[in-house]
Amino acid sequence: MKALRVHGPGEPEDVLRVEETPRPEPAEGQVLVRVRSAAVNFPDALLCRGTYQVKPDPPFTPGVELCGEVVQAGPGTGAPPAGTRVLGGAALPDGAFAEYALMPADAVFPAPDSLGDDEAASLFIGYQTGWFALHRRAALQPGETVLVHAAAGGVGSAAVQLAKAAGARVIGVAGGPDKARVAAELGADVVVDRRAEDFVEVVKAQTGGRGADVVFDPVGGDSFARSTKCIAFEGRIVIIGFASGTIPEQALNHVLIKNYSLLGLHWGLYQRRAPELIGEAHRGLTELADKGLVKPLVSERVGFGGLADGVQRLADGSTVGRLVFSPSA
Q1: Which domains does the chain have, with CATH numbers?
Q2: How far apart are CA 126 and CA 90, in angstroms?
Q3: What's the predicted TM-score (pTM) here?
Q4: Is residue 317 scored above 90 in pLDDT?
């Protein structure tokens, strides 16, 4: 089968190579699927660079999220019948950037009929992260104001739609007019181009000086620091990640004086500590998708020949919407 494999760390455009490799065999607790579509995520770039927390031995195939068709279950493993369309996470080192991939049996979920393959492939990591951040960690309430950073990115775009579906008012922050347009298409009530406007002043103006009730921050760095200047009384800042490359340090006296909360979200930890909650979230997301309240905005589809460049562009922050890989593209 064809697969994009990494033999050593480096930039995605340099180390992702199309190769012929044997089709993987599922072990106990694994399911073999034929890849229909795979969403490209920032962790895929980190895997190429060798800086992700998971470090598979090379050569390996990245691709952490996919929609596929069940082919075979490993020995003694329960799985949906062959031919069932499913979505979920891939089992590295046999990731989704290939014609066939392995999935952990406990990370296989039915793909909603309301979504196509590209959209279903994008429903797992980003939307699960947004769901847990907004509902479980921040306890978002209807009518509250949510400030979403990187609103046109993978997790940010999911957070915009999920916040709107929960009845919140959304202020989305994006970098540049193209990304600002995407955030608006996703449903953000107010969009701030951070290159042209100060989101702190916009949030204060839009909330009558009160500030945002919830801040969804996958960026860190200056985005986090400035968010503390426009957080509401009893507001919640949910820390998702540090795409800026800078991990902020916050003086806790400021948290005390302004009476707000800092909440961390490591979604992957739920997969180990409370996997039953992943299934609950998937059922909730499927219901929202079936009602048309959430739908991943897929902006680009690439095949084997364009994937290395696509992962590089995502790593460089130049993609908008969701970029997906399809073996048939």
Answers
A1: 2-123+296-325 (3.90.180.10), 125-268 (3.40.50.720)
A2: 14
A3: 0.93
A4: no
